[in-house]
Amino acid sequence: MWKGLDDMDKQQTWYETAFSQLEDAFDAERYKEAIEIASELLKEKDVDEETIRVTKWIRACSYSNYADELLDSEFSCRDEENKEAFGVYQRAKDLFYEYGNEYGWNDSVIYLIMLIDHQSGQYIGARDTAIILMDSDNKDYKSVAYAVYEGNTKKLLQAIDDCGFTNSIDYSHRKYLFIGRDEMQIAGTYLLYDDKRWVNYIFTIDKLPSDIVFPLGRPQPGLYMAHPVKTEQYYPMKGVEETLFMEKVREFCWFVQCLGATRVSFHSNKGLSVSQGMGSTMNVEAQVGIKSVNVGGGYGNTMKRDDAYTFNQQVELVQNFAPKKKAYCPDDLIWLDSDPAWQMLLKQRLEGGIMEYTYKISSSETCQMSTNEMEFVKANFEYMMVKANGSYDASTDKTFSSNEETEWSIHVEFAPLEELTEEPKKTKSDNSQNETTMNDYEKMDGSMSLTKEEVKEYVARIDNPFSMEIKDVLELENYPQKPMALGRVWSGSIDIEKDNKVVIVNDGYKCEATVFGIAMFNNLLGFAEAGDACGILLDGVDADDLQVGAVIYKQSEYAESNGQTHITASEQEYLDMVKDCLEDGEIGVRERKLLDKIRVKNGISEERAKELEATLSAPQLTDDEKEYLEAFKDACEDGKVSDKQRRLLEKLRVMYGISEERARELEKVNSN
Predict the structure, then answer these.
(1) What one-character DSSP code corresponds to residue 602?
(2) pLDDT per position as a tens digit, 89-126
(3) Is the CB of residue 538 less than 8 Å from the CB of residue 447?
(4) Which of the residues 252, 294, 472, 527 could staple to 284 if both were Cys, CB 3.0 to 4.6 A apart?
(5) Is residue 374 one of the residues assigned to a domain?
(6) Residue 313: predicted pLDDT
(7) Does 432 score more than 50 pLDDT?
(8) Is 534 found in the same domain as 650?
(9) What is the pLDDT of residues 442-455, one digit of tens each?
(10) CB of 268 within 8 A of CB of 372?
């Protein structure tokens, strides 16, 4: 029993005294004693509800303050080796959650949970609760929350960059991302309740994990979902089911074409019709005659153009093929490893010679999203949008309107294996052992596979003259005299409707060509810019004339530069190494050997390497700098600059707006 309670006569006097002792202990900062008193008091049955509520609050606060004492801390993350302190912090956090769930959540409860996570080094939890309090009416809480958010966001992104967002975090936990324009837009968007929260990660556009990928033109503010197989890629939630469904359908068609399909029939069981889904993309592959995930004329197979597409009431689309190549499994399939039905078909076809097969595909299975999950995600999204935009109206929002269940049946008929005698034609590549196809080279995905840092670098070069280093060369069946050069545009842009004449340069060799088309996003386009991974279809040049490492320039810009070529990515890597070696003023013997290895690895000739190194030692001068340098040369004809001449040079420097540091650089170059 509590001291002083032995002779009490009134029914409630005992817990009133105990509660008074609890308050005294807490006010005197005897937190361990307060924890013991509160724990004993809460065991009693005859305590009124209000006293129980306050006791639970004091107990949780006492645990938090006691942990602070153990760490001798006020408001900073401490050494995690103090296991007792962090155990006490966790107990305090659990008690605050219990209190919030039982008596209702308010900013004070959330604030203390935020501090506990922050002090105990739980940067994800601290950041999440900070996002909630960034929308608080309490100015003090709000101010601290922004500071906690900023500091812990840096820690989170650093940890992610060290370990990888997609590698270190389970897919189910990071499946959905909410992205806001800035901190003000995400304030208050985090949902505290675990059982109702499906969107666990919230970022701003300028602070995103570096290893995630978005479609071209993204990210923009909104909700995103990770690809179920290529989990580093995130797609806008609006229309994601249709996007992934059609991706899988197209790849299945490419899969069965490689296995020797003669006829592929499509029927819509529900949802999106076949004509709606296939109409915009069915002819892409036939246009470019290359292997792609679009449905159409097959790579290595010939499609009968007369009856390629026929529609009727039962079967909405039929594709007929006349295969000649041996059946094989392409090595770049995305969905094969995740779909047992595809794996069984592959075995039945290559080992058993199966002649017919029907495959049923649904958008919900492709997306791996149940109806219940979608409803929760939709509720999360609407809550976030209300916080992010006070004028948000869920009734007019279309983010989830198109996510209707779609199911198709695809029936495939195959040619007998013994009739397929020709070897599948692979692509020509100057990389000898590593032959690639268009899809192997990042599916010509524009800038999708770039990190945000790389995007910034390419954007900085977008106004420079156009240049692209050739990484590989394809010979296309439909265009035997028009080879395709694969690469990523290093700088500038090209619009073939305005300027389609190019020059290809490689170590003294030069040839001219006309750009016939640009393959990107499984389409034949007419435009590409810095950062785009693409294939340039060339006319007027043979594939044998194109070499890996050669650089494509626009003729007009090449002529304007008097043949002075622009620096490629490989050359820039070499230049960066040269700069590092020159930090001490000269390149040593060991450094020269290292540079030679890098030069050979990047396919740079000795002559070109000398040209590149010369650009570092020959500064580009403005007209004013040239005038200053001429005056300096005149002033030091006898090897010295007199005091009078120095005063004149100083006036000239100021007049031309040249800094003292720059003036010393110019004089040093002249002295050398």
Answers:
(1) T
(2) 889 889 988 998 888 888 999 999 999 898 888 899 99
(3) no
(4) 294
(5) no
(6) 38
(7) no
(8) no
(9) 445 555 556 667 77
(10) no
Task: State the Cα–Cα distance between residues 28 and 452, nearest whole angstrom.
Answer: 53
CATH code, domain carrying 552: 2.40.30.10
Asked whether residue 198 falls in the same domain as residue 334, the answer is no
Assigned domain for 20 exists: yes
The answer for residues whose C-beta is within 8 angstroms of residue 624's C-beta and 6 or more apart is 656, 657, 658
> Would you list the DSSP string of 312-358?
-SS-SEEEEEEE-BPP---TT-SSGGG-HHHHHHHHHHHHH---EEE
Domain count, the chain: 5
User: Is 399 part of any domain?
Assistant: no
Among residues 548, 566, 584, which one ends one of the domains? 566
Residue with tokens 């153009």: 305
Q: Who contacts 113 (Cβ-Cβ below 8 Å, separation ≥6)?
A: 93, 96, 97, 125, 129
What is the pLDDT confidence band of residue 669, given thresholds at 50, 70 and 90? low
Q: Domain of residue 74: give its range.
A: 13-219
Tell me: do 52 and 132 sit in the same domain: yes
What is the distance between the alpha carbons of residues 350 and 171, in angstroms, rounded to a whole number?
Answer: 33
Residues 201 and 301 placed together within one structural domain of the fold: no
The residue to which tokens 């006691």 are assigned: 66
Residues 561 and 639 both lie in one domain: no
Whether the Cβ atoms of residue 663 and residue 651 lie closer than 8 Å to each other: no
Whether 365 maps to a domain, the answer reads yes
Nearest to 413 by CA among 349, 350, 335: 349
Which of 170, 185, 219 is a domain's end point? Answer: 219
DSSP string, 198-255: ---EEEETTB--TT-B--TT---SEEEEE-SSSTTBEEESTTHHHHHHHHHHHHHHHH
pLDDT in tens, 129-151: 999 999 999 999 999 999 999 99
Confidence grade of residue 542 (pLDDT, cut at 50, 70, 90): confident
* 614 contacts 560 by C-beta, under 8 angstroms: no
Would you state the structure tokens that stand for residue 323, as one six-digit string? 């295969």
- Mean pLDDT, the chain, integer: 78
How does residue 650 score in pLDDT terms, banded at 50, 70 and 90? confident
The domain that contains 146 carries what CATH number? Answer: 1.25.40
Are residues 586 and 555 located together in one domain of the fold? no
Number of H helices, E strands in the chain: 24, 19
Residue 315 has pLDDT above 70, yes or no: no
Chain Cα centroid distance, residue 531: 14
Together in a domain, 189 and 295 = no
pTM > 0.70 = no
Instruction: Give strand pairing partners of 411.
Output: 265, 358
